[in-house]
beta-lactamase (Sphingorhabdus buctiana), 367 residues
Amino acid sequence: MHTLARLGLMLLPLVALHGCVSAPAKPMPQTRAKPGVVVTQPAPPPVQRKAEPPKVVRAAVPEQLMADIDLAWRQFPGRTGIAVQRIDGDWITGKRFGEFFPQQSVSKMWVAMTILDQVDSGRLRLDQKVKITMSDLAVFHQPIRERVVANGAVEETIQSLMEQAITASDNTANDSLLRTAGGPEAVRNFIERKKLGKIRFGPGERLMQSQIAGLSWQQEYSIGRRFYTARSALPRERRQAALEAYLADPVDGAAPEAIANALARLAKGELLSPASTRLLLGMMERTKSGPNRLKAGVPAGWRFGHKTGTGQELDPLSTGYNDIGIMTAPDGTRYAVVVMIASTTSPIPARMAMMQAVSRAVATHHR
């Protein structure tokens, strides 16, 4: 074969292979920005931030309420603590409301709550009977005493004893409940467990009232006026020293602020079951003692439940004159109101008038 012909046949496969190789890609035409036009890159996605909680707008204490409370407090001659808390709000106001004041029978509230807490837990029953004998009688106000003396002993249900302790401030009924609950330590445990704050609880009516008077308790003091007779036989210096020691550091002392907060928590159902809460609040509204204290300043159309306390006297000084309660406005708004007079030389009508001024001011400036 001719030499040139053979060379052509050899080159044919190479030409075929060259046809199988892809041609290089043509570059994409560049987009040119028009003069005066800025070309920007796409914006990055927005950063996700946690939503801020809404600002809480707190209600302010009515200025005129504070002014009226201040006026009543300054004009009254005596060491007085006042606390007013809007239960369905977020404010509290008053005077000396963080200091300890003698409670006296106000402390019956903590006994009742301790009992009801044990009812809620199944340890006690409202219809459970409690026997009261002559050796269980207390001192001062105790209407149940006449039946005990006449019969030698009586049996009462726990609910009946609570009704008498709260509505009539019966000391023997209260001490019987205290014994049933487990004594003073049981009440102190309830106060601590529920975080009620600056509230103390004493050793019970018999021991506490004896200490305040400068006496040592004897059971015979529970009959008739024997306690008064024994107390009046003491030298005045001894009585005065005992009373001053009590006022300086009351074994049953409580801060008005702590009591107001406890009443608020009770009203909101934070301390007891719904049934027990209703029961105790109902008893407070049936209270017969102290009709001319805070209650007399509560206007018609409002509801009021309360508990009073009254301490001993050493002329011209009166001590532990108290009233605490829950005022409910016609629109359902509730206020815890606490007035505690540690000591005063002011007569009873003036004490009542000062208390009425406080409850009247709460109603007047309600909004």
In short: The mean pLDDT is 89. The radius of gyration is 39 Å. The domain at 63-364 is CATH 3.40.710.10 (Beta-lactamase). The beta strands are 78-86, 92-95, 101-102, 129-133, 153-157, 253-254, 303-309, 313-314, 317-328, 334-344.
